[in-house]
Amino acid sequence: MAQSIAFGVFVLAFAVAAMRNVNIGIVLFPAACAVGLGLAGMALDDVIAGFPLSILVLLVGVTYFFGIAHSNGTIQWLVDTALARVGDRDRLLPLTFFVLTATISAMGAPLGGLVTVPIGMSVAHERKIDPMLMGLAMGTGLSAGAFAPTSLFGIITTGTAAEAGIAISPMLLFGVALLVNLVLLAGAYVLFGKQRQQASQELEPEQRAVHVGPALSQYGQSTLTADIRAEADVVKRSRPTLVQLVTLAAIGILIVLTIVIALLGGEPDIGVLCFGLGACLALVEPSAAKKAMTRIDWGSVLLVGGIITYVGVLSEMGVFDALGEHAAHVGVPMLAALLLCVVAGLVSAFASTTGMLAALVPLALPLIANGGVPGWALICAIGLCASIVDVSPFSTVGASLVASTVDDTQRPRMTRLLTWWGMSLVVIGPVVLTLLLILPGKAFT
Questions:
Q1: Model pTM?
Q2: Which segments constitute the Citrate transporter-like domain (predicted)?
């Protein structure tokens, strides 16, 4: 009875907070204390001990370090340089924005990748690229980068799995996410690339603008004409400042250290590395470091902390063991895994992807413990199913894509197509990932 009440409180608090647009972790943390004290008979210190300090260090360290890179202009320089190198090769623009968005999304906060959206949609408008193609390119790029070892979804997924004693390689998770999202991008090219090519042919050569970040900010959404090409060329040749060079070196050091430590058999603590490198950058330019403090993703820290603390209480009460027994009686673990993935996608299309990852990974533990499905494959599948639907117009990413569409007559079409795309992936994603990831993983387990 106590187990059912505790789980019911968890679901109710989650739903009410989501409907009221309140940080779910803020609601679940005191709920965890109340349930732990009142129903589980736990000491308050034991309840609070479930707060995931290791994930907190990762989130704060990573978002602070890359917040400095945003504040000192390094991220914008990377965007401008990439666009300048592409020039007028329209065919490469969606792929370029996929890479740009994935790179920025990998730098701690996935939604940081949304900085490319206004630029990307303006470029699409100028070059007569289908806004759906450009929007999906950035949406899939954001999803791919979010599962990097340095970014939020990757940190939460691997961190939650590690807390549960399940080994999953951060690079394997990132690799699977990158591959899945590249396949989705290829699908977007097939569905929406033809219109892009036909529209692009309507432009005369002299109308093909070189469109880069600084030019966008100076000239708005107008096409660059021959009169301002000279200035665009200057932008192309712009070089990073000394501070930006130091920041680029720090990013390189972070990547190299992470890879080297992993190859030597260690477990690189990316949060600690980011704190150390962030401290060095703060000493180089204190003003950028102060601005970066506002970029620390405290909302995600509270969200994940509250959910995982409550999950710890549920675990202490034996809720997950009970779910495991029920799963064993069902006798079809693959069906249970498929349903978990569908739930992850459906709820995430309307609510917090971060919350879904923190909440559903523990619910998968009984299936994994009973040997019904491979742990790494199921966790990868849940994470991806929760992320690939984020282009739904009912989520932050999808809403940003619609709002940033330059031609307002295209916005109803964008809303309709993004809804179709997101809702299709609620079903297609779980089925495909179960067939191509979970089933083969079980065969080799």
A1: 0.66
A2: 283-436
